[in-house]
UniProtKB/TrEMBL annotation, chain A:
Domain FAD/NAD(P)-binding: 144-431
Species of the source: Psychromarinibacter sediminicola
Superkingdom of origin: Bacteria
Residues annotated as domain Dihydroprymidine dehydrogenase: 23-131
Record's protein name: NAD(P)-dependent oxidoreductase
Automatic annotation (TrEMBL), chain B:
Similarity comment text for this entry: Belongs to the dihydropyrimidine dehydrogenase family.
GO cellular component terms listed in the entry, alphabetical order: cytoplasm
GO MF annotations in UniProt: dihydropyrimidine dehydrogenase (NAD+) activity; iron-sulfur cluster binding; metal ion binding
UniProt-listed InterPro entries: 4Fe4S_Fe-S-bd, 4Fe4S_Fe_S_CS, Aldolase_TIM, Dihydroorotate_DH_cat
Enzyme class, UniProt record, top EC level: oxidoreductase
Function field: Involved in pyrimidine base degradation. Catalyzes physiologically the reduction of uracil to 5,6-dihydrouracil (DHU) by using NADH as a specific cosubstrate. It also catalyzes the reverse reaction and the reduction of thymine to 5,6-dihydrothymine (DHT).
Pfam entry (one): Fer4_21
Catalytic activity: 5,6-dihydrouracil + NAD(+) = uracil + NADH + H(+); 5,6-dihydrothymine + NAD(+) = thymine + NADH + H(+)
Subunit and partners: Heterotetramer of 2 PreA and 2 PreT subunits.
UniProt-listed Gene3D superfamilies: 3.30.70.20, Aldolase class I
Organism: Psychromarinibacter sediminicola
EC numbers for this chain: 1.3.1.1
Name of this protein: dihydrouracil dehydrogenase (NAD(+))
Name of the encoding gene: preA
Length: 445, 434
């Protein structure tokens, strides 16, 4: 019966179930108590610690690590959640190698940072395993805030507002909350349905009503929300995807990487998910890497990631690039797609080499073809469905201060807002800060 | 490789590393393994009188404190003297001594404070052919409640009396092991000397409670909901032991009395420090109990490398630092140093800054880019930054050469030695001058 890595075309079940389970297991397994004690012992409890400054949510890292070292991971978790209510997810998905761990003095001194991310996971897992929620709501204020988008930005904003005593309604276009935590992050970073568990845990604060499957612009309008509520927060992420602008892009089996990943994340049984024998991923960011790696883990024989610029320009971190390489993904730099070839379904992609010229990227006059049964576009997401009348900046919602938009009473944060890195942790920080600003504004009213 | 062979009050051993009287030396099996691993000698686990052996608790008998990575820093025990029959111990001692004639075996003894009790056991120990005896006047728990151990060690008159009995009824070297659970270690040392002791050994363990169980509200180790103080040993007690050894070594009344140094010896370096402060050899317990007998191999190689590098013989090291142990009042007040931070080694953790800014003299500046610099006009040279810095030798103390300005005091550093006894702020100094 069964298919193998060499079965032509796009088919399911290239790898046995147990191999798939293994491939999609935890990338960084959790620390056990002994490992956590050893890892925590390495922290120097730095003064004005550089790691804290590097954390977009400013978690008091030396304090929480000391709390782990002294046998109180619950207190450590509270230190984390005080700053970052999605500290559990961030512990799994933050590119720590470019954030806190990059500047850890022990990274600088020894090339081996304190394992801040894994320690953070140890602490937050301890509390979440007990299913205890350490926060209570302040006395009800009678104010209502609408939050659009149940991704990290929206959830962080909603939790902080609920804590302050406001009533929150979250609208999300998708059937499940979590945003890219649920639909985007690579499977091996957040196993065992963690995204939904975390949302459920977060919701225990109370005072948050989730209206799933209700899109802004369809089920509800910004005008209506502004009328009904005392404030609105937009955390709608980037629902649109950039096009390749290559000939033949509509050919079959050419898809958006984010859709492939969302399907993968929602697949109950990975052995039923079809994948090409030869997969080509186009892009240079985290999404491209994730699509390529997961294609490989599903059993694609050859996966090639093609990026139009040089390696130094890739937005995926060095660590992520190494991860891809270690999984057998081939990375080609300085090439862009010109033509997708295939009769019905894609068969090949033609690329042209590029070079950096005086006016930016220019064709180098050399082409090559890669065999492809499946092509994933991962050349960036863009804001889609921004409410009319709101000022944009570089294609995103323009904000000033803690997420204030051009429209009175409307805040925005996360990927949909201009400025900041497109990271889970940045979205959390922006959602939280907007909530504080909304609270201050409502309290002053 | 330096010659480490040792002659301690006439007792010869191939190296100065002995195992102290404790579980590692409780029976033939252990001692043979110790000798095979390279230990120069052992002081056998303390023997008691003939009769029913003592009983130990059957619950935990050790407690501990740890440093980073659960490194054992201090160990505490509530174990008593040997709980095996006297005859069995004596037979084993004789057998092992016969098999290992080049190694030192010393019998540790603790019997009631009665002349007959001592005479009886001394006769039997003499028959085994071991090299000497050590009087256990140190155990701070259990045996002391029965008028033995530290109950004797805390009364100089008893020490002198028992030592004299031993010198009367036993003709090989007598070492008196001292308890640190007293205020002035020189008193019991002097008593031992007056009683005719060939040497003292110290320290025995220190009264201690290592931890409290915060669920059962009971000291650890916990025996059925209760705990009692135990005896503390291991790396944590080394500083106390070194100080006590040095006190005996430099006091005119006890100067020259041979000392077997004990307490926290964990590496060759610790051993060398004891020797430099006047110990003729060292005894080890916790390090062996923590890492096994093999640790002696590092002690041997380390000490011989050190002696080779210094071009010294073992005897040259013994007591070498004693003349430099002095009283505070004689320390040179014109010795002025300042902390210096090696910017290449600094990893910018800021611990020196937190320590100095919060708890000392605000003498470290934190500059943009996390650059830490010492302010010479504030630095009192306390050394705290050196001690808290995680990088060895990153911060050092540099002496201001005489003639340069101490920016803190505004005074030029003088070249003369000047101490408190002559300092103008010292009322006693003024009186003397008048
Ligand atoms: C494939 C992939 C992998 C990634 N991996 C990582 C990683 O490893 N680490 C990391 O830190 N970051 C990663 N990121 C980035 C990270 O996921 C995002 O930065 C983060 O999720 C942004 O949060 P957000 O709340 O702003 O938006 P989102 O998570 O996108 O959430 C937006 C929510 O708004 C909803 N929505 C959209 N439009 C509407 C509308 N009109 N009405 C109502 N609801 C709407 C969406 O359904 C969604 O639930 C990855 C991103 C992708 C695409
Ligand atoms: C540098 C230093 C100076 C101290 N000076 C004094 C003092 O002047 N008077 C005093 O009673 N204790 C003094 N102490 C002892 C402390 O008060 C405290 O009893 C001791 O450090 C033990 O506590 P700790 O080790 O838990 O900190 C001093 C301790 C240190 C480290
Ligand atoms: S920088 Fe590293 S060592 Fe310093 S506090 Fe942060 S985690 Fe600890
Ligand atoms: S070391 Fe452990 S196993 Fe051995 S006797 Fe003691 S408690 Fe028992
Ligand atoms: S304690 Fe040492 S390493 Fe840390 S900042 Fe100070 S000098 Fe640098």
């Amino acid at each position: 019966m069964g298919n193998t890595q060499f079965t032509p075309g796009v088919v399911a079940g290239r790898l046995p179930g147990d191999v798939l389970d293994d491939n999609f297991g935890d990338l960084h397994p959790p620390l056990d108590p002994h490992e956590a004690a050893v890892a925590a012992d390495r922290c120097y409890f730095c003064y004005d610690a550089p790691c804290v400054e590097a954390c977009p949510t400013s978690i008091d890292i030396p304090l929480f690590i000391r709390q782990i070292a002294t046998g109180t991971p619950e207190a450590a978790a509270e230190t984390i959640f005080d700053q970052n209510i999605l500290g559990g997810m961030c512990a799994r998905v933050c590119p720590t190698e470019t954030l806190c761990e990059e500047v850890c003095v022990r990274e600088v001194a020894e090339g081996k940072p304190v394992e801040i991310g894994r320690l953070q996971r140890y602490a937050t897992d301890t509390v979440m395993a007990k299913n205890s929620h350490p926060y209570e709501r302040a006395a009800a204020t009678g104010k209502r805030v609408a939050v659009v988008g149940a991704g990290p930005a929206g959830l962080a904003c909603a939790h902080r507002l609920a804590m302050k005593g406001h009533d929150v309604v979250i609208y999300d276009a998708r059937p499940k909350p979590g945003g890219l935590n649920e639909y985007g992050i690579a499977s091996y970073k957040t196993v065992d349905g963690f995204a939904q568990k975390e949302v459920d845990w977060l919701m225990q604060i109370g005072g948050i009503e989730l209206r799933a499957g209700q899109a802004l612009g369809e089920a509800v309008t910004l005008e209506a929300l502004r009328e009904d509520c005392d404030a609105v927060f937009l955390g709608m992420g980037l629902a649109g995807v950039n096009a390749l602008r290559a000939e033949g892009e509509e050919t079959g089996n050419v898809a958006d990487a984010v859709d492939f990943i969302a399907d993968l994340r929602q697949a109950g049984d990975l052995s039923k998910l079809a994948i090409g024998r030869n997969v080509v991923v186009i892009g240079g960011g985290m999404t491209a890497i994730d699509a390529a790696v997961q294609s490989k883990l599903l059993g694609a024989e050859a996966v090639t990631l093609v990026y139009r610029r040089g390696q130094e320009r890739m937005s995926a971190s060095e660590y992520e690039q190494e991860l891809a390489a270690s999984q057998g993904v081939r990375i080609v730099h300085h090439a862009m797609p010109v033509r997708v070839i295939g009769n019905g379904a894609v068969r090949e992609v033609e690329f042209e080499y590029t070079q950096d010229g005086p006016n930016g990227l220019e064709p180098a006059g050399e082409t090559f073809r890669l065999p492809a049964d499946q092509v994933f576009r991962a050349i960036g997401q863009r804001l889609e469905g921004a409410p009319d009348g709101i000022t944009l900046e570089g294609g995103k919602i323009a904000v000033s201060g803690a997420g204030r938009t051009s429209v009175a009473g409307v805040w925005a944060g996360g990927d949909c807002a201009a400025g900041g890195d497109d990271l889970t942790v940045t979205a959390v920080a922006e959602g939280r800060d907007a909530a504080e600003d909304i609270h201050a504004r409502l309290a002053a009213e | 490789m330096a010659d480490l062979s040792s002659d301690f009050v006439g007792i010869k051993s191939p190296n100065p590393f002995w195992l102290a009287s404790a579980p590692p030396t409780d029976k033939e099996y252990n001692v043979r393994r110790a000798f095979e691993a390279g230990w120069g000698g052992v002081v056998w686990k303390t023997l008691g009188s003939e009769g029913p052996p003592v009983v130990n608790v059957n619950g935990p008998r050790y407690g501990a404190i740890w440093g980073a990575d659960r490194r054992l820093l201090g160990l505490n025990n509530i174990e008593l003297i040997t709980d095996r029959p006297l005859q069995a111990n004596l037979e084993e001692m004789a057998r092992v001594k016969a098999n290992y004639p080049d190694r030192a075996i010393v019998a540790s003894i603790m019997v009631p404070c009665e002349e007959d009790a001592w005479r009886e056991i001394l006769e039997r120990v003499a028959e085994t052919g071991v090299d000497g005896i050590e009087l256990n006047f140190g155990c701070p728990h259990g045996m002391s409640e029965r008028g033995m151990g530290s109950a004797v060690g805390q009364v100089p008159e008893y020490i002198e009396m028992v030592t004299r009995w031993c010198k009367t009824y036993y003709d090989k070297p007598v070492i008196v092991k001292l308890t640190p659970n007293i205020t002035d270690i020189r008193k019991p040392a002097k008593a031992a000397k007056d009683g005719g002791a060939d040497a003292v050994s110290l320290i025995n363990t220190i009264n201690s409670i290592t931890a409290v169980d915060l669920d059962d509200f009971c000291p650890e180790p916990t025996i059925d909901g209760k705990g009692s103080h135990g005896g503390y040993c291991g790396p944590a007690v080394k500083p106390i032991a070194l100080s006590m050894v040095s006190e005996i070594a430099r006091d005119p009344e006890t100067h020259g009395l041979p000392i077997s140094g004990i307490g926290g010896v964990t590496t060759w370096r610790d051993a060398a420090e004891f020797l430099a402060l006047g110990a003729g050899n060292v005894q080890v317990c916790t390090a062996a109990m923590t890492y096994g007998f093999k640790v002696v191999q590092e002690m041997i190689s380390g000490l011989s490398q050190y002696l080779d590098e210094k071009g010294m013989a073992l005897d040259d090291l013994v007591g070498r630092a004693v003349p430099n142990v002095t009283d505070w009042q004689y320390l040179n007040l014109n010795y002025v140093t300042k902390a210096r931070i090696d910017q290449d080694l600094c990893i910018k953790c800021g611990r020196c800054y937190a320590a100095c800014e919060d708890t000392s003299h605000q003498a470290i500046a934190m500059k943009p880019g996390r650059v830490f610099e010492v302010k010479d006009d504030e630095c009192v040279a306390c050394n705290l930054c050196v001690n808290v810095c995680p990088v060895e030798d990153c911060i050092t103390m540099e002496r201001l050469t005489p003639g340069t300005l101490d920016e803190r005091t505004g005074r030029v550093v003088e070249s003369d030695y000047a101490n408190w006894t002559t300092h103008p702020n010292n009322p006693a100094a003024k009186e003397a001058a008048e």
